[in-house]
Structure formats: structure tokens, C-alpha cells
Amino acid sequence: MTQGFATRLQAAFTQYGHLCVGLDPHPFLLKLWGLEDSPRGLLEMSLRVLEACSDQVGIIKPQVAFYERHGSAGYKVLEDVIARARNAELLVIADAKRGDIGSTMEAYAATWLGQGSALEADAVTVAPYLGVDSLAGTFDMAEANGKGVFVLAATSNPEAATLQRSRAISGRTLAGQVVDDVSERSLRMTDAGGFGVVLGATLRLEEFEIDTSSCYPIPVLAPGFGVQGAAVKDAQSLFGALSQNLIVAQTRSILEAGRDGVAEAVRREAAETANALG
Q: Is the pLDDT score of 1 beyond 60?
């Protein structure tokens, strides 16, 4: 029987630490690497990053948008990258941020979490603002297939605060309600802890009424470290009890090192994250 995502995530933490390397083949990064903005360039950058991650980190996070902008050829590259990464026993979080209702959301879930799908990943990011219950089919598929789901709760883009700090019918902030709902679902799982949330590391989470000292320690995917401003050394103070299952997402601070410096950048950030989180 396939191990659940929570179990595999804990194994990755134990063996490699909490660093997650983002794969974002943005046009400016491809140029910095001396690569053309084409499927061939995407593939070369991605494979170089995977090579740099080998035996250094346990988690990668491809940003789907930078592949799909190249159409079917970009998707073919992404299929290849995901397959190679998973064959190398890296956990793959597809940063797709999908969110919809009914059969449409179920189709998205099948794409990223379905056994045998060409784009099968280990976990996917999803958007809850059509209602967390609209993701019920995604949660069900994830649990059935031993996958993870990371639900956007409090994100670091400034325009999100008005929505995410507004009040749900329960009286909670929307971001706080998402954390509560995901925690409840995660606790009910057979492999408890397979569902998590996305929380920006640059935020003051108390402004979203997220109490990191009392939250159930679900996995947290935390972008915002490095170039975006949050310091890895502050991870425990930023996330409190949630830091034990914190996934420290680093992208530009690693990829901006270029093709010749990426391996050293991965080693540096992995060591810094290990020092901060053990």
C-alpha cells in the first residue's frame, strides 16, 4: 500500500530538512541562465535544478504557469520534469492554485492527484474562495490516492488582505476559517496531516487572526523567504507551533544563482534551513 503524503513528508523532513526548491522558469531567469525562452530552455533549467537538488532536498515545487504558457510543448516538459523528480524520490508539489466547483474541480484534482495521470504529483495547491466545501472531491481523491492538498489561506500579495481578513459568517476571518476547516479535515484523515495550508512568511499572521501557538500543526507551505524578505532564521518565531511541519519555499534566492551557481545555492539554503528548523 502506498504511504500517505503526511508520512512521506515527515520522511523528507527527517532525511533532508524543510527546504522546498521552487521551479519557476520565468523569462528573466531563463535569460539570466543564458537559456532561450522555449520548451528546450524550460527543460534544461528544470533538469539542472533537479540535479542540484539530488541528495540535498526532498521537496520541489514547480510553478505550473511558467510551463503552461508554452502550450502543449510546455506541458510535455512539465510531465517529464514531474516524472523524473518523482522517480528520484523527490516530493513534488504542483503549484497550480486551481479552484472551481463540481465536476470541473474533480477534473483538476484528477489531473494533479490521479494515479497514472501524465501530470501526477504528490500534492497540489488549490484556491478555496468558491468555498472550502467546493474542494471536497479534491480532498477525497487526495486521501484515496495518498496525496497532499495545500489550500491558500493567507497569501503575501497586498491585494489579498482585504478579502482574506474579512469576516466569514462564523465571525472568523476568512483566512482563519480556512485554516480551521483544513485542520478539521486533516485530523479526520487516516494518514492525519495530509492536508495543509499556504501562509506567506512575510505576513503578520495575527492580523489574519491565525494563532500559531494554538493551531493544530498541519503542514504549512510558506513562500516569502529569501528575496521576498522573510529570513529563514526567523522561521520558528514566525510560525510557532506550525514550524514543526513548515515547508520553507525558496525560489529566486536559489535560481538567481544561475546555472553554474545553483548547486551551491541549494546546499547553502538547505544548510540554513536545517540550522533554523533542525
A: no
For the ranges 87-96, 122-131, 221-230, which has the lowest average pLDDT? 221-230
As a dihedral over the C-alpha atoms of residue 60, residue 138, residue 83, residue 56, rounded to 10 degrees, the angle is 20
Check pLDDT > 90 for residue 193: no
Tell me phi and psi for residue 259, to 5 degrees: -65, -35
114: cell is: 490521479
CATH number of the domain at 5-277, please? 3.20.20.70
Count of beta carbons in the 10 Å neighbourhood of residue 122: 25
Q: Which of 278, 210, 207 is nearest to 246 (CA)?
A: 278
Alpha-carbon span 91 to 72, nearest angstrom: 24
**What are the residue numbers of the active site?**
97
> Which residues, other chains included, contact 244 with Cβ-Cβ below 8 Å and sequence gap of 6+?
217
Half-sphere exposure of 140 (CA within 13 A, CB side): 9
8 A C-beta contact, residue 272 and residue 232: yes
Question: Domain spans of the chain?
Answer: 5-277
Other C-beta atoms closer than 10 Å to the C-beta of 14 total: 9
